[in-house]
Amino acid sequence: xxxxxxxxxxxxxxxxxxxxxxxxxxxxxxxxxxxxxxxxxxxxxxxxxxxxxxxxxxxxxxxxxxxxxxxxxxxxxxxxxxxxxxxxxxxxxxxxxxxxxxxxxxxxxxxxxxxxxxxxxxxxxxxxxxxxxxxxxxxxxxxxxxxxxxxxxxxxxxxxxxxxxxxxxxxxxxxxxxxxxxxxxxxxxxxxxxxxxxxxxxxxxxxxxxxxxxxxxxxxxxxxxxxxxxxxxxxxxxxxxxxxxxxxxxxxxxxxxxxxxxxxxxxxxxxxxxxxxxxxxxxxx
Length: 285
Hints:
By secondary structure, the protein is an alpha/beta fold.
């Protein structure tokens, strides 16, 4: 099973043979749980590999490597429960929460999302947007259904058509940036601001890079709505993702209800999985 080089370097060496022997074409996550064997999650199944059982030492090794052996980074990681690493990998941890609810200790499991580019997956969506005229568009699905992958390829496709695109990549997952190197191709006319609060990064990009399209991953906070309002008034087209299973469920969440009521986004692309395949359905909001 192929994994990004940066991800292989994070894993305990005794787990690698099981991964090398596994014939899994499109792994989406790795799961490490103490007392269980290493598991690989795909779009349709979870496969438990013939690996050693996961120990506390395995999780400690993963944490040390993911944080670059930095006590400060480890502390921040355990405060928020996850860490973003090189090549756009996101690693989440579970364990015991301290009394004040801010720090994880005694780690018991980890989830490693495996980012990947799927060139061409956004071709139909990009074609429809270009035919109908670019409008502010949301990409919507429950967690783990491929919103970031679709957004990544949509940025690449529109950039290849000549649009100037700026991406506020708060978590480093869109571009997979490591130092000055981008791990994923976002097209020839795309500028990326990695790290930082996306609302602040988006305003910096609007002021400095003169984009025609502004893209960012996951609308999660009130600050995001404010920058959306400001950007919409600047004549830039917006592309963004959000966690949602249906429009009805969106209206149950105050943040998303306000987003819909603002009428800033005029189109939505819903992502669903059927028989292991991702399907994209566009509708007007």
